[in-house]
Structure formats: C-alpha cells, structure tokens
C-alpha cells in the first residue's frame, strides 16, 4: 500500500515560490538540502548495551547507556546507534547531539504503557502551561533539547507510542498533565527525520519547537481517526523547516504550523517562518494543512504544494482567535487535490481556546496575503468558510484557479464570508462577494 502511495507522491507536479531556496535532485524539487545527511564513522548497536528485541524486556537502560556513550566519547563526525530487527520496549529517553538513531527493517522502538514513571518537564515558555492541563507536561517519548546534528532514519522501522492508554485517559478526563508527543526537539538545529514509520502517538507526533534547519522527509505517520490530538507534524516557533514526500493519516491536523499561545506566545515572540510542505498525502477528520490556532508569535512565509487529501474534514485551515495577537502572512497553498472533504477552505478568527483568563481580548491577530491557487476538489460538502475578526479584517486573500465540486445533487457547495477582503480569479462555484473583484495590488496582482 505504502509503495503505491509513494509512487503517487513522486508523480505529483510541483510549483516553485521565489522566496524559497530550492535544491533539485534529478527532476524532483526538494528543500531537503538545507540539512545535509551526515555520514557517521562510528557505529554501535543497541545490543552492545544489553538491548533485547523480544517485545517484553524493558530496554530503557540500554538506550540510555548507548546515548551516554555517544555523548561523552564524542567521536569525530558523531555516532550511529543501530537498532536491529525486533521489538524494543522502553521508557522515554533523550537523544544527544551528533548522533544518528537508525532503525533497521523490522525494528520497532515501542513505548511502555506504564505512565506512572513517565518524566515530567516544564511547560514551554511560549505556552505558559501544558497544552491540555495546567502545570508541566510529560516529556516526549523520544526527546531532544538544545541539540544539533541529529538524525532519525533507517529502513522504515517503526516508532510506536502505544498511545491508546493516553487517549483513554484524555477521554475519561483523568489526565494530570499534558500528554507526551512521540518525538519532540526543543531549541535544536540541524535535524533530519526520514524513512521511519511513526505509529499511535499519545499526542502530537513530531514537534520541532524553537528549532531551525529541520528536514522531515519520507515518513509515514499513522493513528486511528478517532485518536485525540494526534497531529502529524507541528512546526512550532521554528524556521527553515522542510516537510516532504510523506503519508500521514491521523486523528487531527496532518501538518499544523504554530508559534505560541496567547499572552505567553506574544511575550516569547518567536515566529514560525519559511516552512515548506510538499508532496504530502493523507486523511484526517480535521485539516490537511493548517496554520494555528496557536499563532501568537506570528507565522510567515509558508508554502504548501502538491498535497493530496481524501476523507478529511478541511482541506486548508487558517485558524486564530482574539487574544492571540501575532501576524499571519505570506501563506501559499498550491496544487492541492481533495476528495470527500467537508469544507474545502476555512479561514477562521474564532478558533481555539485560551490558556487562562489573563489573555488580552484586545490582542487581535492580523492575517494578510493568503494565496490559494490551483486547487481541485470533488465531493466537497462546503466550498469555503472565511470569517475574519471585526476591527481586524483579514486582507490580501487571493483565490486563483479553484474548482470545488459538490456531492451529487442540484446545489453546488456554498461559500460563507465575513470580515475578509481579497480577490478571486477562475473560482467555481462562484465565491462570496468579498472575493469577486480582482485586486491590482497585493497577493492577486501576479494572477490578474
């Protein structure tokens, strides 16, 4: 199945944007060259440190010993930690700089379901508290803080979060702290994640936060459609992030760009910028490509192209709220195909909750220069829902060459708009009045 999906991904057309630096390998346009893959001269195996892949032995000590060795011996060029075929049960663990975690074919690193010993760490400063619960948060299953030059790769081995116990705690409202992500890097740079399957994350799957120069490519991310908050990839207050050639099917947004939560994100003030999402296929009850809703540090210069969605909630979702502050600008989505989707395009200024009652209701977000072009949808129930904020109209919205066909029946899918301003060129069905005239300036000028 995945080979067939990969073939579809590689056959997608591509479109370049002038403010991105692109690298070309043959006929394939890619941004992955921002972080070259490191060849490690030193190689060790988890079995050298007592690792046992029987699915029952707890391998926490083995992983921690191996990574301690990498950290303290500091071999020139770094070290590759090899995980052979087998199922390696373990508690959460920290990575270190200048290392490669390599999963052989058939290798599974599986999270223990004993939540009582799961480490707690401080909340992110741009969130002020755990995303789900006040106070701290559980550390991600595989974690890195303040690192550089780290690779997670292999032969499509699996990192399995065994998240159902965490999902049930969320459903039963017995969580004491925010659930752990599957993989999280904080304050790190030079990160490559490729050729790995991520399965059943307790919470968000891959979360680079306060990071730069991150490449996530050729990954498969899987979770049941009813698994709560299992976002696929969430670049958060990070820059120069490349996400390409991947299949994601989860219970929440496939890719969601974030930058902090209300007054905490405003104070931290670190935007997400220069994020590329290309050749991603998947399905979700929520959004395929999302910005927000936590965008208080700002989000700018996001390019998503060659995206294929099916059986999903929303194709593109730009979402923010009063109290967020921040600026969302220069967002481009192009070459998007969707099938069996509830809403094709959603731009909303009333989405998302607040960390506490201390948010400033006068901290209004500003959304401008959204370009949505070359989009095709079939079996779309509602074409678009685009509602800005009174006194903070969303501006510079350009729809170009957008065709959204409804389900069988006489009525085409509808648009619903308020507090937005922009233009539409070759859009079917006919869009709302706020988008019917071609602007000669702003984001639609180059398409008029």
Automatic annotation (TrEMBL):
Gene3D superfamilies named in the record: Single-stranded right-handed beta-helix, Pectin lyase-like
InterPro entries associated with the record: GH28_Enzymes (IPR051801), Glyco_hydro_28 (IPR000743), Pectin_lyas_fold (IPR012334), Pectin_lyase_fold/virulence (IPR011050)
Family: Belongs to the glycosyl hydrolase 28 family.
Species assigned in the record: Gossypium harknessii
PANTHER family, alphabetized: PECTIN LYASE-LIKE SUPERFAMILY PROTEIN, PECTIN LYASE-RELATED
UniProt keyword terms in alphabetical order: Glycosidase, Hydrolase, Signal
GO biological process terms, semicolon-separated: carbohydrate metabolic process
Keyword rRNA-binding: no
Cleavable signal peptide: 1-26
Record has Signal as a keyword: yes
Coiled-coil regions, chain positions: none
MF GO annotations: polygalacturonase activity
Any Pfam family the entry gives: Glyco_hydro_28
Protein name per its UniProtKB record: Pectin lyase-like superfamily protein
């Amino acid at each position: 199945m995945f080979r067939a999906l990969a073939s579809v991904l590689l056959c997608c057309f591509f479109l370049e944007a002038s403010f991105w630096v692109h690298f070309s390998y043959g006929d394939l346009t890619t941004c992955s060259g921002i972080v070259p893959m490191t060849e490690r001269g030193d190689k060790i195996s988890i079995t050298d440190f007592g690792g046992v892949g029987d699915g029952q032995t707890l391998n926490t000590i083995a992983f921690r010993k191996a990574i301690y060795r990498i950290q303290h011996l500091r071999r020139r060029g770094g070290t590759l930690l090899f995980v052979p075929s087998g199922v390696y049960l373990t508690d959460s663990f920290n990575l270190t700089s200048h290392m490669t975690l390599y999963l052989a074919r058939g290798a599974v690193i599986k999270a223990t379901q004993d939540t009582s010993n799961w480490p707690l760490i401080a909340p992110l400063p741009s969130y002020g508290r755990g995303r789900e619960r006040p106070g701290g948060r559980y550390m991600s299953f595989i974690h890195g803080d303040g690192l550089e030059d780290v690779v997670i790769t292999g032969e499509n081995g699996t990192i399995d979060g065994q998240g159902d116990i965490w999902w049930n705690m969320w459903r039963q409202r017995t969580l004491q702290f925010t659930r752990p992500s599957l993989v999280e890097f904080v304050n790190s740079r030079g990160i490559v994640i490729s050729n790995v399957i991520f399965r059943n994350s307790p919470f968000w799957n891959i979360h680079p936060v306060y990071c730069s120069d991150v490449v996530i490519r050729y990954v498969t991310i899987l979770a049941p459609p009813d698994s709560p908050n299992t976002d696929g990839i969430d670049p958060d207050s990070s820059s120069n992030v490349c996400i390409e050639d991947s299949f994601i099917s989860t219970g929440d947004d496939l890719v969601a760009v974030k930058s902090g939560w209300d007054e905490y994100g405003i104070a931290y003030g670190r935007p997400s910028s220069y994020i590329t999402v290309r050749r991603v296929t998947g399905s979700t009850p929520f959004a395929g490509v999302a910005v927000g809703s936590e965008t208080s540090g700002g989000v700018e210069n996001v390019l998503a192209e060659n995206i294929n969605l099916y059986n999903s909630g929303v194709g593109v979702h730009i979402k923010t709220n009063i109290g967020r502050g921040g600026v969302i600008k220069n967002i481009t989505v192009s070459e998007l195909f969707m099938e069996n989707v509830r809403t094709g395009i959603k731009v909303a200024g009333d989405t998302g909750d607040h960390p506490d009652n201390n948010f400033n209701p006068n901290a209004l977000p500003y959304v401008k220069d959204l370009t949505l072009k070359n989009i095709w949808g079939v079996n779309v129930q509602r074409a678009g829902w685009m509602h800005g904020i009174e006194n903070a109209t969303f501006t510079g919205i350009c729809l170009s060459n957008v065709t959204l066909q409804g389900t069988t029946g006489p009525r085409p899918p509808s648009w619903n708009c308020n507090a937005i301003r922009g233009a539409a060129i070759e859009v079917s069905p006919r869009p709302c009045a706020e988008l019917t005239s071609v602007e000669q300036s702003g984001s639609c000028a180059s398409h008029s």
